[in-house]
Amino acid sequence: MRQRHVLLASLAGLLLAGCVSNTPPGKNGGTEQLRASLTPTLQWAGVSDACIAQLPSSTLAEVKGITSKSARSSMDVLQRRQRIRTAAGKVCTTI
Prior knowledge:
5 helices, mainly alpha
């Protein structure tokens, strides 16, 4: 009977271990996940890693909105890049 309880406790521990957050205390996991997904796009637009690290969720949401529409021409791509840089520039003094 005791072995069964130990086994069940071990299984429960393993299941709960999969629920542990990798987000450090005090950090918003959703914001960090969004930042991670947008980092390649922000880097492509010429935004520095230091600037990316300090962007608030509102700016990240703005960038996500900018990138949600498909660019149909090279002019659209250039405008998208500039709009991303402008959004980041509102927060960072040096992009």
